[in-house]
Write a structure and sequence with these properties.
The complex is a heterodimer of chains A (about 475) and B (about 325). Chain A is α+β, with helices and mostly antiparallel strands and about 475 residues long. Helix content of chain A is about 40%, strand content about 15%. Classes of the chains: A alpha+beta (about 475), B mainly alpha (about 325). At the A-B interface, strand 6, helix 6, helix 7, helix 9 and helix 15 of A face helix 6, helix 10 and helix 13 of B.
């Protein structure tokens, strides 16, 4: 294998092996995933950190430390990331022997320092807390900003406010139930989660789904991307105080939601993708409606592109704001539009084509400036590409069955799988023990990989730039926390 | 005695306090409706015909809510600053001729333009004080932004207000308005454009609504306010908008004067005044919908590097051309 300067870390999965804890470092290199396995004893789970060679691994290591109790020696900031501050010590929820049924009673006893020290300003620095409740954040997470005048000096993210233990819950449900569970990780990119999980399971089973269902999945996934990007672009308008843009974008997003409903029966959580195919076929009578809606959206995108490229106040607020250089993007292992905005040509749809992406021609969008504007422009251009993809897929829809029947029991085995969610690379690892229940489901969402870059982006910038540079990452905290 | 009653009526009912209050709420409704239409929404539509009573309903709703004062706040300033700011702006409006003469008759004096502009400065300072006293980082940063922004726009605004004063050869608002046989917007359109843009900053509207940037500062200086005090803060903001628009009407659009067809001139003058006022509000709302919010440093750059030189240039141009283009009415 050739050396790859753009290699990064995709995820670190922990795995309870009884006496030992397995650690898998999933590295992204040359457009594919290479997994490095190691084991640490459960009694004394210690391993050296890799953050010194891969700064992007910081969050991944903290997550494994929280959920499996592995100590990463030499980690620069080994604080809790996912679990609440009052979670009992020595209780690691993803270990198989963890007794989490009575955790509520344990938390009531002062088992950990529950009172968080109220942050105070030091010298001329003022502490400004953004979140867990804040108008700039649609979901609860906390960012402590140290501010001097209007300049941000330091950022400390704290996630975990919407951690629902979905990885643990997935172990207690059958594979089919898990499809609906993982869809609920994120409301916006729900079909991506379903598709990625389903395809991981299909890899373990060795099932090939019929071509028609691959095309139908592609259409649903691209509709998902369309509405997610439109939502984000509208939201970015709101963050820079451009309410008109916000209202326009969300108005134009509405027909896409209606298309999703037409195709899948549901507006938001589509529940259309299932193991072995999709649950509903596309009717011939729907095709004209799809074509008209997409054509009208495509026309509007010209207007928006012109707006983003030429409107002076948008340019003033987004260009040269929140710059993430290509080097930082690689060292922090960011994914998706954030990486593509910094000139990293990375798209799972191109690198490891899944579903019908290998057969459909489309362009990989990348910008080189790495500022908030570039990240927004990537999405703007991707909307046009998505429209083209759906158009092509509808035109070239193969005939035949749209699903195959699969057994409920999955043979023993394991697989990793990736999908390009609207926010970037989505990573799944599933291990099966030969029953109807998975042994382990690991989800690494795109936002989880992108949040560390926010520290880089915000520091040294203006307070007024924090919302716009933050929103240009398209953060989704329900995804992040799972 | 009759004169006294007349004065009380003028000050309290028409064209004084009550009229201004309802005009403010009406303008607020117009603004919301226009903004909604421009953004493809419907805007207020349930309270009263086409939602015209919505601003009144909002005001009353806030008044009956619980009023909490944060324990760390500077109580006196926190309580009185919003009400004082409101009173100061209303007092400033009293110098503007609405139905042909100033609300308090014979109150006009040489230089009341400067006095009225100074009152608005005081009102802004009181708003700063209200945010500063609320002992919240959001309030404090919002308040600091009010002052910073005000440093940027106040001087250009003042210089631009002098253009009509030179054209009319007077510093008295009533005579500036009365001397416009040809509205100054036609004589010096560039000054009008600059004045309206600078006024957007004065009124803290897009693209200059930085002190109220909700995505950064929650509610800016209003963050800690609730109940009646918040109602007055909102009202102050709306009255300021009416005042700003009224100032444009007086300085550039020929004041309340216009053709009188029959009956009382006061009626027609008030009508023209309100119509012109609404025109200015529509323009201002159009600008609001057109732009994104700038950053505080960008506002200062725009004001000091572009608006200030332009307004000085305007002033020089006006002084040079005033007597030639528009001989003073002696």
């Amino acid at each position: 294998m050739e050396a790859d300067n753009d290699a990064g870390i995709a995820a670190i999965s922990g795995l309870d092996l009884g006496e030992k804890i397995g650690l898998m470092y999933h590295m992204r290199t040359n457009g594919t995933i290479v997994t490095i396995r190691t084991e640490v004893p459960k009694e004394n789970p210690k391993i050296a950190t890799i953050t010194d060679i891969m700064p992007g691994a910081s969050f991944h290591e903290r997550e494994v430390a929280d959920l499996f109790g592995v100590v990463f020696q030499g980690h620069p900031n080994p604080a809790r990331l996912i679990l609440p501050e009052d979670w009992p010590e020595n209780l690691y929820p993803l270990r198989k022997d963890a007794e989490i049924d009575d955790v509520a009673t344990k938390c009531e006893t002062p088992c950990a320092e529950t009172v968080e020290a109220q942050p105070q300003g030091e010298g001329t620095l003022v502490n400004m807390i953004v979140g867990p409740q804040h108008p700039a954040l649609l979901e609860p997470e906390k960012f402590s900003l140290k501010v001097e005048g209007e300049i941000v000096k330091d950022v400390e993210p704290r996630i975990g406010y919407v951690h629902r233990g979905i990885e643990k819950a997935a172990e207690k449900r059958t594979y089919l139930q898990d499809v609906y569970l993982v869809e609920r990780i994120c409301g916006i990119c729900n079909s991506c989660h379903a598709a990625c999980f389903v395809e991981t399971v299909e890899k373990i089973m060795g099932v090939t789904v019929p071509p028609r269902s691959q095309y139908l999945r592609t259409i649903i996934l691209e509709l998902n991307r369309l509405h997610s990007h439109l939502l984000l672009l509208g939201h970015s308008g709101f963050e820079i105080g451009y309410e008109t843009l916000f209202q326009y974008m969300w108005r134009d997003r509405e027909p896409i939601m209606e298309l999703t409903e037409l195709l899948t029966g549901n507006r938001v959580i589509s529940s259309a993708i299932t193991i072995g195919g999709v649950r509903r076929d596309l009717k011939e009578t729907h095709i004209p409606k799809i074509k008209t809606v997409l054509a009208s959206l495509k026309k509007k995108m010209d207007f928006y592109k012109n707006l983003y490229e030429n409107e002076p106040s948008i340019k003033m607020r987004t260009q040269n704001v929140g710059i993430l250089t290509r080097e930082d993007a690689i060292s922090l292992s960011v994914v998706g539009p954030v990486a593509r905005g910094s000139g990293v040509n990375m798209d799972v749809r191109k690198d490891e084509p899944y579903d019908a992406y290998g057969e459909i021609p489309f362009k990989l969008i990348a910008y080189n400036t790495g500022d908030s504007w570039a990240r927004l422009m990537v999405r703007l251009d991707e909307i046009v590409e998505s429209i083209n993809i759906i158009d092509y897929a509808v035109d070239h829809l193969p005939h035949g069955s749209y699903r195959v029947r699969v057994p409920r029991i999955v043979p023993a085995g394991e697989a990793v799988n990736r999908a390009e969610a609207p926010r970037g690379e989505l990573f799944y690892y599933v291990k099966s023990n030969g029953t109807a229940y998975p042994e382990r489901v690991k989800v690494r969402t795109p936002t989880f990989a992108n949040i560390p870059s926010f520290i880089k982006i915000a520091e040294g910038g203006n307070i007024a730039d924090v919302p716009v540079s933050f929103v240009s990452l398209d953060p989704c905290f329900s995804c992040t926390d799972r | 005695m009759i004169l006294g009653l007349d004065l009380v009526f003028r000050v309290l009912v028409f064209p004084g306090f009550t009229f201004i209050l309802f005009l403010t709420m009406f303008c607020d409704w117009v603004e919301r409706k226009i903004e909604a239409r421009m953004q493809n929404r419907v805007g207020p539509s349930f309270t009263g015909p086409s939602g015209i009573l919505q601003p009144l309903a909002d005001f009353i709703k806030l008044l009956i809510k619980e009023d909490i004062v944060p324990s760390d706040a500077k109580k006196a300033a926190f309580r009185f600053a919003p009400i004082l700011a409101f009173s100061v702006v209303v007092f400033a409006i009293c110098f503007l001729p609405v139905d042909g003469v100033a609300i308090i008759p014979n109150s006009a004096f040489a230089g009341d333009l400067i006095f009225v502009m100074a009152l608005i400065t005081v009102a802004n300072f009181l708003l700063f004080l209200s945010g500063w006293a609320s002992a919240s980082p959001y309030g404090a940063i919002g308040a600091a932004r009010v002052l910073t922004q005000f440093l940027g726009y106040d001087i250009p605004l003042f210089l631009l207000a002098l253009t009509p004063a030179f054209l009319a050869q007077s510093l008295t608002i009533t005579s500036i308005a009365a001397n416009q046989y040809l509205p100054f917007i036609l004589l010096a359109p560039w000054a009008f454009v600059l004045f309206v843009i600078t006024l957007q900053a004065e009124l803290e509207k897009d693209p200059f609504d930085i002190p109220l940037a909700e995505s950064e500062l929650v509610g800016g200086l209003e963050t800690e306010y609730c109940g009646g005090k918040l109602a007055f803060l909102h009202l102050t903001r709306d009255v300021q908008i009416v005042f700003g628009a009224a100032l444009v009407v007086e300085l550039f659009l020929g004041g309340p004067y216009g053709p009188v067809f029959f009956g009382l001139p006061a009626f027609w003058y008030s009508l023209w005044f309100v119509l012109k006022l609404l025109t200015v509000i529509v323009i201002s709302e159009y600008l609001t919908c057109l732009f994104a919010r700038l950053r505080i440093d960008q506002v200062l750059t725009v004001n000091w590097k572009i608006m200030l030189p332009l307004s000085v240039l305007t002033l020089i141009l006006t002084v040079a051309l005033a007597t030639w283009v528009y001989p003073p009415v002696v």
